[in-house]
Design brief:
- The chain is built from 12 helices and 3 strands; from the N terminus they run H-H-E-E-H-E-H-H-H-H-H-H-H-H-H.
- The chain has a 3-stranded antiparallel beta sheet.
- It is globular.
- The protein starts with a helix and ends with a helix.
Length: 248
């Protein structure tokens, strides 16, 4: 058992190294595209950026994140779609529901068919299905995708992705991914969280350093969550009002 664990750890370390190299190559390609002299030439057609599939080592890291073997909304196995806005994986049915919400709420991509940017991949590697569902659970926002389509359409404002809490999460995930991008070569989820924890004062970081939704904002206190996350600037009110407030 110990030997198997060691082998798994070594494989994960190899995948992390390969993933970091894949991300660096992708960043270089994007940089070359941005700096190409013909890119903004008035008499030339725009230079097309090369189609970049989700890199294989990055995909293995993504699949290894807790909760990512099942759809974040309906628990279907082997999800092949993603919501970049929340760094979570979806089945094909739930990806359709996310598309209906609009790109201002949820940007959807296929893991196998669509093109991915360096930043989008970082959003996925720094997100995770369990992380997102834990955040929603703290805000008492369970999935309503088990409801019928009619109930879903009639009750759209109570959809958890339309709340201010969800808006807060996606904004902070994007900010977190940007900080990871600016830090240089990717060193894995744990590396950035540990460095952030070590800079926190008086053990506060150790209490909140577990995930993006929690470490950047949220405490387990319902009152504090309501004020800091769900009301998005509106202080006061009950937690249920906060969680049902439409934020997008």
């Amino acid at each position: 058992m110990v030997q198997n664990t060691s082998v798994l750890t070594l494989m994960q370390a190899d995948d992390l190294t390969l993933a970091a190299q894949e991300l660096e190559r992708l960043k270089e390609m994007e940089s070359e595209h941005e700096s190409h002299p013909w890119r903004h030439h008035p008499r030339r057609s725009p230079m097309k950026q090369q189609h970049c599939r989700f890199p294989p080592a990055c995909l293995r890291l993504l699949r290894g994140i807790e909760g990512n073997l099942r759809c974040v909304d309906c628990d279907a196995s082997n999800p092949q779609w993603a919501t970049i806005s929340y760094g979570a994986l979806l089945c094909i049915d739930c990806s359709g529901s996310h598309r209906q919400l609009g790109v201002q709420v949820s940007i959807v991509r296929s893991l196998s068919m669509d093109s991915w940017s360096h930043f989008e991949i970082l959003c996925m590697l720094e997100g995770g299905n369990k992380q997102l569902n834990d955040f929603f659970h703290r805000h008492r926002l369970p999935s309503n995708h088990f409801a019928s389509q009619q109930e879903y359409e009639e009750d759209i404002q109570r959809n958890r992705y339309k709340t201010n809490a969800a808006m807060f999460y996606r904004v902070n995930l994007a900010q977190h991914a940007k900080r990871v991008e600016d830090a240089g070569m990717y060193r894995g989820r744990d590396s950035f969280r540990k460095s952030k924890t070590s800079r926190s004062e008086g053990g506060r970081g150790q209490e909140r350093g577990g995930d993006v939704g929690e470490s950047t904002t949220c405490s387990s206190s319902t009152t504090r969550c309501a004020t800091k996350c769900c009301f998005a600037g509106n202080e006061g009110g009950s937690s249920s009002e906060a969680h049902n407030t439409v934020g997008a």
